[in-house]
Amino acid sequence: YPPHLIRNFAIIAHIDHGKSTLADRMLEITGTIPPSQAAVDRMDEDQKNEQVLDTLKVERERGITVRAQSASMFYDHPDGTKYLLNLLDTPGHADFSSELLRSLLPSQGALLLVDAAQGIQAQTLSVLDEARKRNLTVVGAVNKWDLVKDDGRGEAAVKELSALLDCEEDEILRVSAKTGLGVESVLEGVVARIPPPPPYVEAEKLRALAFDSYYDSFRGVVSLVAVVEGEIKKGDQVTSTTTGLSYPILDLGILSPREISIAENPVVASRTLRKGMVGWVVCAMKDVKDAHLGDTFHHTHAPMPPLESFEPLKSMVFAGCYPMEPGGFPKLEDAIKRLTLTDRSVTSNRESSSFLGQGFRLGFNGSLHMDVFRQRLEDEYAEEIIVTRPLVPVRIVYKNGTEKIIDNPDDFPDPGEMLKVAEILEPTIRATIVAPEEYTGAIINLCTAHRGVPLSHTYLSTPSSAHSAARITLVYSLPLSSIITNFHSTLKSLTSGFASFDYEEGPYERGDLCRMNILVNSVKVDALCSVLHRSAVQKEGRDWAKRLREVVPRQQYEVVIQAAVGSSIIARERVAPMKKDVTARIHGGGDISRKLKLLAKQKEGKKRLRERSIGNVTIPLKSLYTVLGGQ
Ligand code: GTP
């Protein structure tokens, strides 16, 4: 397919501004997927949310797209030309910005969507930033036009977006992905305004960028590639610049949105994936570990240097993960293995806790990413799972110049080791918050309480009509650790849902961190220890001790729960011993049949398997699950 008839683009937007819906509509209009408008009208609300590009169950439940997926479509332009449009669908949350980068890489342009009723939001700014960094041509569109009709909010959004993109208001497309209004103009806009990939040069050597992959138990790894130079066809021998391993190309094609082998497609006459095209290849790669995002393939006989690639994914939030069921470890391991094949950004390593036994330490891009994975894991594993408190990677720099990064609170230096430590560094983020001006005070207070340092404070817009209040953009530097638990939800509730928030990675900075241990009758519960800023220790210590007191059942003896930093005790709670039930002795026994007794005994045995002992105290795992935030 000649490059001048190809357009590679991504749809970028704040979460829920309608990317997947627009992608579906474009696939429908081009006949790539069957038209469904009539069918949609007959569907109930639940079914309507089911979208072609959101394939995984959790994504539907949460309404977010987690995996970037691309789809190619053939578009019959009104002038009679047939274009090949390669759409790279991107997920919509800060935690997944690595996936966003992945889909922007092979594109020449991006369609920036803004919800007509909400206007520009924090993530609109950050995704635009990424697109600009990559010199992409950005086409602006205001979506959900059906919601605003003629009430002025739509035009206010157009104004805001044209100012942001520094273009004329009439260059902004007005669209309703829901009703189909203006979707044709999006297709035309993509063709007219986004540049085609560079032209194909005869005998050019192959360089193909692998930007995503998935696993198929029958064929092995299926890699999604963007052919940046040259061409690739069935039977070619290719080599990975990352691993040096060579593979024969067994099959290849485009995604539209299902895999279409090139051999079967009458439109792609050349039977090759040529420069500018995006597609899938199967090359007898059996081990998922050999599939590297950002890898460059070249022909084995014509070595080439790798293309500029994206940075490897970094895990920024870690948590321990343990089965609650006795003997559940192998099953949990299996479930984690299956899921990490579909979400390669999760890292997993075995670990063991003296309290919880064998488990895993999982690493995520962020806390939302962790929540989504946890829910998926519980679905996959079909049992409750204990997930320990999240921790960000903490850098410990020693006086002798060495340093280590810890991802488990239990590895935090104890007071003795602290004498050798020069400084402790923690990751920060650069947070962008967009909100109506009236919430400025509340947001500043929230950021200050989370150890934030203000960086900038600007007006996004001034009131232009009765329908748009002045809105501000606040930029703060915040420690990542302070926002991973409830920052986002507090921000939402403080601003009645009007504030939006996004962040990018900042530098590591000094943090006065310490380890808080939880002791039960003087024995440490490793699964409950945490790394905290010293200023938060008092409150957290009291909270944890109290919460634990509520779930630890009474025992024969008194149970003392303590929160401690080093040898100083922060909080102390007490669970009184059971009173001896004398009547039970008198009335119990005699009238229960042997069988009932046996059953009760068996039940007791099962219960015990779901308990753990710390010293002389028995704690049901379910209590720990509750304390750690499981439902
Ligand atoms: P993420 O993938 O989670 O970032 O979301 P998204 O940007 O892909 O948004 P999605 O397409 O899932 O749409 C979010 C919600 O907005 C859904 O409930 C859609 O039905 C709705 N929606 C999308 N486009 C329109 C539109 O043009 N009009 C109206 N009224 N609703 C729309």
Automatic annotation (TrEMBL):
Chain residues that bind GTP = 13-20, 89-93
Query: Per UniProt, what is the membrane topology?
Result: Peripheral membrane protein
Keyword Mitochondrion tagged: yes
Specify the Tr-type G domain's residue ranges. 4-198
Query: Its GO biological process terms?
Result: positive regulation of translation; translation
Instruction: Give the Pfam families listed for this entry.
Output: EFG_C, GTP_EFTU, LepA_C
Taxonomy, superkingdom? Eukaryota
CDD domains the UniProt entry points to = EF4_II, lepA_C
First-listed, main subcellular location of the protein, grouped into a coarse class: mitochondrion
Family that this chain belongs to: Belongs to the TRAFAC class translation factor GTPase superfamily. Classic translation factor GTPase family. LepA subfamily. Belongs to the GTP-binding elongation factor family. LepA subfamily.
- What PANTHER family does the database record attribute to this sequence? TRANSLATION FACTOR GUF1, MITOCHONDRIAL, TRANSLATION FACTOR GUF1-RELATED
What this chain does, per the record?
A: Promotes mitochondrial protein synthesis. May act as a fidelity factor of the translation reaction, by catalyzing a one-codon backward translocation of tRNAs on improperly translocated ribosomes. Binds to mitochondrial ribosomes in a GTP-dependent manner.
HAMAP family assigned to the protein according to its UniProt record, in alphabetical order: LepA (MF_00071)
In Swiss-Prot or TrEMBL terms, this protein is called Tr-type G domain-containing protein
Task: Provide the organism lineage as a comma list.
Answer: Eukaryota, Fungi, Dikarya, Basidiomycota, Pucciniomycotina
